[in-house]
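Hello,

Following up on my earlier ticket. Below are the two sequence lines again, exactly as submitted.
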Amino acid sequence: MVKVTIDPWGSFLVKDYEKLIGNYGLEAFTDSLIKKLPNPNKLMRRKIIFAHTDLIKVVNAIKNKKDFYALTGIMPSLEQIHLGTKLVIENIKYFQNQGAKTYVLVADLEAAATRGLSLEEGRKRALSFHIPAYIALGLNPKKTSFYFQSTNENVKNLGYIFSKKITLNEFRAIYGTTEPGRIMSSLLQAGDILFPQLEKRMPGVIPVGPDQSPHILLSRDIVNRTRSSFNFVLPSGLYNKYTPSLDGGLKMSKSKPESCITIPEDIEKACKKIRRGFSGGRNTLEEHKRLGGMPEKDMAFELLKQHFIEDDKKLQKIHNEYKAGKLMSGDIKDIACKELTKFMKDFNKKLEKAKNIVPSLKFI
Amino acid sequence: MVKVTIDPWGSFLVKDYEKLIGNYGLEAFTDSLIKKLPNPNKLMRRKIIFAHTDLIKVVNAIKNKKDFYALTGIMPSLEQIHLGTKLVIENIKYFQNQGAKTYVLVADLEAAATRGLSLEEGRKRALSFHIPAYIALGLNPKKTSFYFQSTNENVKNLGYIFSKKITLNEFRAIYGTTEPGRIMSSLLQAGDILFPQLEKRMPGVIPVGPDQSPHILLSRDIVNRTRSSFNFVLPSGLYNKYTPSLDGGLKMSKSKPESCITIPEDIEKACKKIRRGFSGGRNTLEEHKRLGGMPEKDMAFELLKQHFIEDDKKLQKIHNEYKAGKLMSGDIKDIACKELTKFMKDFNKKLEKAKNIVPSLKFI
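Thanks for your patience. The regenerated structure is below:
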């Protein structure tokens, strides 16, 4: 596990993210770009978004009121959502508010191929949990086109057609692996990323976590190689940092359940995990008062920053008081727990409401 | 090009076909198996079919009047049919007559992926030429389910799902290549081969030329690896020899147009090619009369045997008279030309008639 120092307000990038930018040809998410985005969301303002690819295309579409799209997916495996997914949905919601045609795909076919989940079961889970959860997290269901990979002719066709456009060695260079299952699911994702353009060529933004960046790269390669037949516009990527593991690791993961919070989750259990989490407090009370806390190393503070406090001033105040030694690490954990409780209760209420909307959704 | 001696009536196999049987684990097409097939067609009787995989499953289904299926495909590239395809259709027709549920797929998605043919163009060509041609060659349109790969949800889904069931190394062992385009189109073909069983698990026979045998092998491997999720019946393969090139090469191919006859083709041109073809005549008239002709090396005779003479007695008579030196190689070419003319005229007439049927066909 790579250890990463989290810097809550600074604009420099931690080493791992810098490496990612270098390896995948991403562009840094700069202040000047943020200024071009109308009403940037908290992830943008706080540089939880650390990089992008070609986002200027989407920025210009927003500015000139031209068509563009935003797309993300649902992996209907467990009836849980990862906090990283919450970040992606927040970004999708942002672009939806800016006028993006919004697509949310259910990766039922990938779930079947890679996890042996039957299409029926994937469909059932998506309808009963994931789609309502995405709505509960803020997507406007009336402005979102949902679809299932398994019933989207165009996506599947594109996946097969794209297969001829990439060699095994190129695939290896992008993904580091060449197993057929991996190849096919990646080509299917390229199909997802580009199919909205079949109707109309337009810019599109795919907000993802760092581990999904190869898909953006592959899609862009494919666009370049299918110029003569498709002439797609190169899709743009937007990359958020991981939500770190509560033990301070780079990425929160279900493989370490004691350091991972999912949505939904039993509130008491989640608070217990937060309380056991890695903090930025000093060794003694005296030391803490003298040197101040270290919000940049504090996982509870990171949760507040990435997920639970919307208001920058409120967050800044907590940050400053913690750093000044006025707030103790236990205080930060209390606040995180309180805000998480508020969030989870609100989510559960919205989830139940959203479930009632599902039957009226339009699927493409 | 591997040179192959064609043996018209003998039951032994030429070296290349023997090798194929060894490499792909095929079973020889034996007299005892032929006896189990009701009213074997001329390809079976004449051992133009040289091997099979597990055909006993289908033999038993015929015998016990159980459900089984036969499947073949159309590659809608040129508006021409290969003589090798004619052999496959003859076998499909045989099994259709024995009660097989019959499926003919249009490989429009493969054509798009591997040859850059748009789905629209592939569809158009299949409807205007290939499907009517298959009907003209004897398929009963009322008993045949046609479909397009690009619109068959199940086939495409199976292709993606199967991708997880095979490693790159296994793919290399079967196909000798590992390019993503090849992987995807082969998995799609496995989807084609197995999808009829989604409705009902049953034996099925896929008549193919030797170069298609890897697809049968892959499908059977996949059946073994998806026992727990699908429990398909292992599909059977039936393998016909190639129609040799008119210059005596192993396989007739469009890459040597002067040695290749397609359906349809200008009759005069086709006859000219036959007359220039490799013959089994001796160097001089005297020698020919003394030693007799060599039907086993005669490409015109091979055409009669594989394609144009249905009646075994009639073919045997020509064979015997040629071998006895009573018929000259020019005579065999004349007969081949005459029979080809009859066939082409009949085909053209039936093709026009079949075109009128297309609008009333049911597609699945």
